[in-house]
What does this fold into?
Amino acid sequence: MFVLLACVISCCVSADTAADSMEKHKVVPDVISVAPGDILEVSYGKNKVNLGNELTPTQVKNPPSVHWNADGGSYYLLCMTDPDAPSRSNPKFREWHHWLVGNIPGDKINEGDILSEYVGAGPPKGTGLHRYVLLVYKQPDKINFTESHLTNRDEFSIQKLTEKYKLGQPVAGNFFQAEFDDYVPKLYEQLKGIKYKFLTAGTVILSGYTVNMDDSNVKAKMEANEIIPDVIDVAPTEVLQVKYGSLKVNMGNELTPTQVKDIPEVTWKVEDGAYYLLCMTDPDAPSRDNPIRREFRHWLVGNIPGNKLNEGETLTEYVGSGPPKDTGLHRYIFLLYKQPGKITYDEPRISNRDTCNKERYRAFAQKYNLGNPVAGNFYQAQYDDYVPNMRTPLEESMLYGAFR
It folds into this structure.
């Protein structure tokens, strides 16, 4: 009885805290009319969103981990929105939405329909703190969203959208605040050439964003996520098409170890008669903060005729993502190199991935005169419950070797 009472009191305190914080910071009524009953759990790696705490654009540049008390058979809509565009004192473009995913089964965001791809906080210089509000709504059922993929990010209203689809009030929510830092210009560059809205002299806010990555975004995405210079010096010119079943790798989106346990389908533009080398690497072993085992080789296939992967020479068998617990997001990078011809690779076939951690792909490519990669892509992943199942000797070194 005491435990039950304590839980009830805790839930009430949490709800009251959420309502109080949202009213204090005027999320109610600027964004919603009624505060949600539950606090949405949102984490950017080790940085947790906590009802108005301040984070930096650098810290929130990648999609967060989001969880809520979900009914297994229900669908949900998740939104992240900034009501302070271009500034809280002059919100003439309210709201600028940063993320919108519908038809989420339970809290499995990766299985939902992406209406707007995630874009991190990018408050213009001199505009002070912006509020970034994350809300979850329970849908009455699966919805055929007529918006498809939204291209206009500004002058959005989550209230109007939810009224349109009769979603009622949000069931969970949270928010953080952020102001300009040195990452923001990189974000603008990352989305350069898409759709801009000029707000003040020399300052831009992005008002449109394409969810399908094209070749022009490769360099900006890889620089923003520090693949350049951590792994390669020069970005590839094309996007490598990588799919795990129906899930696409999309320049830094988050997938789970469960979703990437099997070999993906990989395709690219080929030249007649050419041979290629494909690699997959994790530069964040055992963690991005402490990459003492950089790089961990997950896959390496050479002498691929055209894009016939099955006819290539496997130098390292595929191993899915197995990031150790509490090491945050790891970057998993696919790179494709065009070979000068068919190559006799003198490396032994890798049976222990950890033995190659000092031999980085940059050096490997130089050794065989492969030049710069012609295509690339990457995703991010962190520990999930599938990782302990990776118990073959090949995975042991990655999962546990870093801590011996």
Confidence is low (pLDDT under 50) at residues 1-13, 193-213, 352-358, 392-404. The chain has eight helices and 22 strands. The two ends are 45 Å apart (CA to CA).
